[in-house]
Amino acid sequence: MTEHFTLDFDTILMVILPYVAFVLFLVASIQRYRGQMFTYSSLSSQFLENRHHFWALVPFHYGIIVILLGHLIGLLLPQTVLAWNSQPLRLYILEVSALVFGLLTLVGLLGIIYRRMRDIQIRFVTSTADWIVLGVLLVQVFSGIYTALFYGWGSSWYASTAVPYLWSLVLLSPSVEYVAAMPVMVKLHIIGAWAILALFPFTRLVHVLVVPNHYLWRRPQLVRWYGIRRLTGGGA
Ligand code: HEM
């Protein structure tokens, strides 16, 4: 029997899109690093406002780092995750911990968005690309938490269905069947990940590639403005 390659929405969004996103990510990241190395930054606005920056950025980063590490552990060690989850108490511990870090990410992200909307100076230095990144991240985090809350025991079915799908992409033998029957919100979550990968090199997300980012562990900085009095005629 001959196999037919059908070009439906699932194939476009969950097979072609991830490959396009990955190639774009690789080529454009390298190009930007070689051409505009000094733009490889999060373009911090910390010097404009520091308090909200600290209370939003820190929870967001700790939350997202733990969540993405969790996704990575599931990807690399699916059998270990399934074995861990085989005892109900351990499954609850994993699910509740993931939810706590998911919510930490969401609270931090909402704080970042609120800070950029509220402060006029920060709104001024926020580009359209920044708003797009924040919007896509919000959809991603929201759809992840929604998935965790409404499609029970995600850590187990992630290991047994989403992970084989991801490996099928890595091994260049894509099998969209693993995820084709998933609910819309889960598909949105998967497609969101590919959108983020594609946006990566064109936005401030590139700073992830040049860690460490010291503001995660240093104390909030005090920034003194020396120029203001001189500008307003008040001397040095
Ligand atoms: C940019 C990439 C991604 C980000 C930022 C992200 C973020 C998140 C967040 C914040 C959660 C909520 C965690 C919780 O509250 O328990 C989550 C859950 C989840 N994500 Fe992702 N995700 C990404 C990529 C993916 C991909 C590619 C897949 C699958 C192919 C996936 C599958 C899942 C599943 C199944 C859950 C539910 C886990 C559970 O119930 O404990 N995610 N994700």
Q: What's the structural blueprint in terms of helices and strands?
A:
Layout: H1 9-35, H2 51-76, H3 78-85, H4 88-118, H5 120-124, H6 128-150, H7 154-170, H8 177-180, H9 184-199, H10 228-231
Helix pairs in contact: 1-9, 2-3, 2-4, 3-7, 4-6, 6-9
This protein binds protoporphyrin IX containing FE.
Protoporphyrin IX containing FE (HEM) is lined by residues 67, 71, 95, 98-99, 102, 105, 140-141, 144-145, 147-148, 154-155, 158, 162, 166, 189-190, 193, 196.
Describe this protein's structure.
The chain is mostly helical. The chain has a single domain (49-217), classed as Fumarate Reductase Cytochrome B subunit, CATH 1.20.950. Helix content is 68%, strand content 0%. It is built from 10 helices and no strands. Helix 1 runs parallel beside helix 9 (184-199) and helix 2 packs antiparallel against helix 4 (88-118). The radius of gyration is 21 Å and the shape is globular. Residues 231-236 have low confidence and may be disordered. The structure holds protoporphyrin IX containing FE.
CATH C-level category:
Mainly Alpha
The CA-CA distance between the termini, in Å, is 84 Å
What is the total domain count? 1
Figure out the total of helices. Answer: 10
Cα shape = globular
Helix content: 55-70%
Q: What fraction strand?
A: under 5%
pLDDT averaged residue by residue: 87
Element pattern in H and E: HHHHHHHHHH
Q: Which radius of gyration do the C-alpha atoms yield?
A: 21 Å
**How many strands, which pairing sense, and closed or not: the largest β-sheet?**
none
Determine the structural class based on helices, strands and strand pairing. mainly alpha
Report the uncertain regions.
Answer: 231-236
In CATH terms, the superfamily is Transmembrane di-heme cytochromes, Chain C
Number of strands: 0
Which ions and ligands are bound to the chains? Answer: protoporphyrin IX containing FE
According to CATH, what is the topology? Answer: Fumarate Reductase Cytochrome B subunit
- Please state the second-level CATH architecture: Up-down Bundle
